[in-house]
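Quick entry, no commentary yet.
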Amino acid sequence: MKEHKNSPLVWPLRALGLGALLGVWAFGNGPGGISPLVLPTIPRVVEALGEALSQFSTYEAAAITFGEILAAFILAAVFGLAAGFWAARTPLRMQVFQSIFVWGYLAPLILFYPIFILSFGTGVGSKIGYGAVSAFFPIAYNSLRAFATVQPTMLKVAKAFGASSFQTDFLIKLPSALPLISSGVRIGAGASMITVIFAEMLASTAGLGYQLALNSQTFAAPQAFAMIILLMALVGVLQGLVNLLLTPRRDRGKITNIAH
């Protein structure tokens, strides 16, 4: 397979895109005539970001959001992988649960968030539960597809050589299913991040999402934009950790080079 070579234009184009975004922002503040209540100036946002980073409460809120996302993702990954593996073991289970997983994957689960609030309150429990359920379905569905698409010939050869069920599951099925499972886990990780932050904005008492909603409701636009920047940074770190865990060690250098 031919190794991908980085173009020298990658970073200049990225810088150009960022510069264009900042230019549009500055134009909106000046000739565009957009109110600072809606679009604060860049220096004011930088000042608000510095103030937020100097306060312990910001790191406490970030830790809460990070913990909620991490807990939701771990729960979804464990139960999603187990459910997909169990459902793929027989054709009947696969036919029954594939449609259920697809429905849960595509359904607007935000409609059920009030149930989580009624069950767990506005604390971290409702955020973890809602995020876990949202991430469970893409992980379970992709895991089911992954285990169900293992070539029957490989299983027959394993049985012919006297492989036990345990050996077949973990030495044949799992390695063959890993690429599709990894895709589902990545989708689930993104779903847990989005839903937890959104849930914090809707009904919460702590977290960066709560701080963003609070600043928006009080028309503190610079502080709201600062929270958006912090949330984007947090999501970037989490996504990087997920990619690092799911990328084989031998391919990490290639992925890093492509990113740069």
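second:
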Amino acid sequence: MFVINKSTNSIESLNRKSFSELGFKERAHLQEWIAGNPEALGEKLLIIQKEFSDFSETNERLDLLALDKSGNLVIIENKLDDSGKDVTWQALKYASYCSTLVKEEIRSIFQAYLDSTLPGKNAVDMLKEFYDDEDYSEIVLNQRMTQRIILVAANFRKEVTSTVLWLMNFKIQAQCFKATPYELNQQVFLTLEQIIPTKDAQDYVISMTNKAQEEITTEVEVKARHKIRLKFWAEFLKSIKRKSPLFQNSNATKDHWLVAGGSGITYVNFNLVITKTDASVQLTFGRTSQAENKTLFDALALHKTEIESTFGEPLVWERMEEKKSSRVSYYKNGLNYFNEEEWGDIILFLIEYVNKLEKSVRKFFPEIKAALAASIKDIQEPLEEQ
């Protein structure tokens, strides 16, 4: 840091000092400076307690407890020349202790602080003022998983910075401020510089943290879905034995669909599909040639009336002009495979209606196969299932 000398148009270096050199103490000085002017940490904070120790079954004390403008509790831990290696663990403990505090407890803690520092001041009035005169009943404080951590020290050990950066991947709001004292001509100066995350990159770091957390959450959800589907299809395959010639050679899968041949035409399959909202049985035309799929679909659609009469219900005929495949489907809404109590109903539906679909269309397979053979000269794929 430099001081500008206007008269000589020059700059003069300030002497960087340690807190111990200058005789400053953690509680008597650094803590009091921040408590008296919390905006030195780069934002508006309301200090609600110092040396807070009202944790059940422990006598530990956190340095400063504050609220930010979003109603989040902010745990501020101060160290002097060296952060030490345990400050992150300390702050995490205090954050966990504070996570259970409800609004009335926070008001009471703040009132006790005011009684000792500013007698006559009312916590409710101060909170209303801090939150821009919002009605106290509508002020929301310390919502779940919103606690923040601010660490202040002249020097941070690698154990601390590495841990803070890792914690941020899990959406734990943690910041490190480097406190540096300087001296010039018996005047002492102090800088508080946010080093983690760096101020300029803070929004980017937060967005990347959110993305990382979303990816972790998504990965966990995907694994859970896969586990549920494997279990569901295993139950289904046990149930369909002796009830249908279809799916006898199929295996349980992590996918939300199960495929069986049986049409006698390659890549013309019976499919079962399960989702959070419905279940369906399908006859799909999935050959590599779009033209071949449309030929097969159109040949079968000529018998739509008879097929639906045999099936007993209207079917969904999806030629899907812009897509390669086509399909004929029957859906039942209101079925959710995530609810294991519904599995019995879903399995009964799938078995009953895939059998109905197979019975309704099977007699037309020789005809649509002939239509396909007549429409192409060079068949790129085997016509029949191997």
